[in-house]
């Protein structure tokens, strides 16, 4: 686990982590994780019981054209809605 993640884990483990981009996802979930294939799925890691990987927002800006940017933005929002549902479910259970 990266030092920064380890430091955060010692101050109280988060219930949810959103990994923005491949570097973050691979640091949390292992080097074989491919954000393009695993995005939006809820996974476990040593850091948190629920980790959702998605693209880094800057990658949306690098899409080749407006249509591709809109497609990527919709997918990104869908990933974030997955996280919102997890948070809402936790609030309902509390």
Quick structural overview:
This protein is α+β, with helices and mostly antiparallel strands and 94 residues long.
Q: Mind explaining what this structure looks like?
A:
The chain has one domain: 3-Layer(aba) Sandwich (Uracil-DNA Glycosylase, subunit E). It contains five helices and three strands. It has 94 residues and is an alpha+beta fold. 17% of the residues are buried. Strands 1-3-2 form a three-stranded mixed beta sheet, with helices on both faces. The chain has helices spanning 3-10, 22-29, 35-38, 57-61, 66-93; strands at 16-20, 42-43, 50-54.
Strand arrangement across the biggest beta sheet: 1-3-2
CATH superfamily: Uracil-DNA glycosylase-like domain
Helices and strands, in N-to-C order? HEHHEEHH
Overall shape: it is: globular
Number of domains: 1
% residues in beta strands: 5-15%
Relative helix content: 55-70%
Low-confidence stretches are none
Task: Spell out the key features of this protein.
single chain, 94 residues, alpha+beta, Uracil-DNA Glycosylase, subunit E, 3-stranded mixed beta sheet, globular
């Amino acid at each position: 686990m990266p030092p920064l993640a380890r430091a955060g884990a010692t101050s109280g483990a988060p219930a949810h982590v959103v990994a923005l981009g491949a570097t973050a996802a691979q640091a949390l979930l292992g080097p074989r994780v491919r954000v393009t294939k695993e995005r939006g799925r809820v996974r476990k890691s040593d850091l948190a019981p629920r980790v959702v990987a998605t693209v880094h927002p800057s990658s949306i800006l690098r899409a080749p054209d407006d249509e591709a940017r809109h497609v990527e933005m919709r997918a990104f929002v869908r990933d974030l809605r997955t996280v919102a549902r997890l948070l809402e479910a936790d609030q309902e259970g509390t």
